[in-house]
Design goal:
- The chain is mainly alpha-helical.
- The protein is built from 15 helices and no strands.
- The chain is globular, with a radius of gyration of 23 Å.
- It starts with a helix and ends with a helix.
Length: 278
């Protein structure tokens, strides 16, 4: 069932993405592509209007395309039909439009109902989105315990951002009893699965000795991994490690280079450190 849900989502994204690619070529002046795009949308609209489970993906793909094209009113209508026809991830996308008031009046209660429907069907994004609502008090009373329960479920279903947020909750004691060791374990597992921010924060755990034994070399290794993948703060932290010789050989040239990289990626502290090298 989970594999089917994932494949359904993938098909939706690919279909909507292909239409978006055609749209871009059309705007660039390719008349033949414009005609192909027009025919594709027309056929998908006919299929969606016809209804039935066999045409549900046509509605979902159109919703994805219209949302990408910022035609939110149309996106709402197509997602709504796709959701009704059983494309559960379309329910999540529809919920997000309700949450943001895009193409429809903002309605957090409606959004949460859609997120809950998807979460009950084991769609990770539905659980994660509902967790966000409970965390921020959007249409529900803020509830830290419920937030983390939902993050935990979304994490189990493969939503790495939910794993990261759950780890943060344990690190800060937000809605759960503070447990630095548990936080480090979750960061480590998520980092292994490729979540960049988790690698960066695991590096901080090793640097500070929170939940793990202090290990500057391991911290620098994790900062390097996250920096290489585009995490600005990790680049700044790695620059600091090279400047101070913590876990790596002291090297002002490397320090400046990593500070500059962090600054380029938008980390203010890195920009401030760069000034100290002038």
């Amino acid at each position: 069932m989970k594999r089917f849900i994932f494949l359904a989502f993938l098909a939706t994204a690919l279909l909507g993405g292909e239409l978006a690619d055609l749209r871009d070529e059309c705007k660039a002046g390719n008349k033949q592509t414009c005609e192909s795009l027009s025919n594709a949308i027309k056929n998908l609209e006919l299929a969606c209007e016809k209804g039935g489970a066999q045409n549900a993906m046509a509605c979902a793909g159109l919703g994805y395309f219209y949302e990408f094209d910022k035609e939110f009113t149309k996106a709402v209508a197509r997602y709504e039909k796709a959701c009704e026809l059983g494309v559960v991830r379309a329910c999540v996308y529809l919920g997000l439009l309700y949450q943001n008031g895009q193409g429809t009046a903002q309605d957090h209660k409606k959004a949460n109902e859609l997120f809950a429907k998807a979460c009950e069907k084991d769609v990770a994004e539905g659980c994660a989105s509902l967790a966000y609502s409970y965390g921020k008090g959007l249409g529900v009373y803020p509830d830290g315990k419920k937030t983390n329960e939902l993050f935990a479920k979304a994490c189990e279903l493969g939503e790495e951002t939910a794993c990261y947020n759950l780890a943060l909750s344990y690190a800060m004691g937000d809605g759960v009893e503070k447990d630095a060791s548990k936080a480090a374990q979750i960061f480590a597992a998520s980092c292994e699965r490729g979540h960049v921010r988790s690698c960066a924060d695991l590096g901080v755990c090793y640097y500070k000795g929170e939940g793990v034994a202090r290990d500057y070399a391991k911290a620098a290794e994790l900062f390097y991994k996250a920096c290489k993948l585009g995490d600005a703060l990790a680049c700044s932290n790695l620059g600091f490690a090279y400047e101070k010789g913590q876990g790596v050989k002291k090297d002002r040239k490397f320090a400046k280079g990593f500070y500059e990289r962090g600054c380029e990626l938008g980390e203010f502290s890195a920009c401030e450190y760069v000034k100290g090298f002038r």
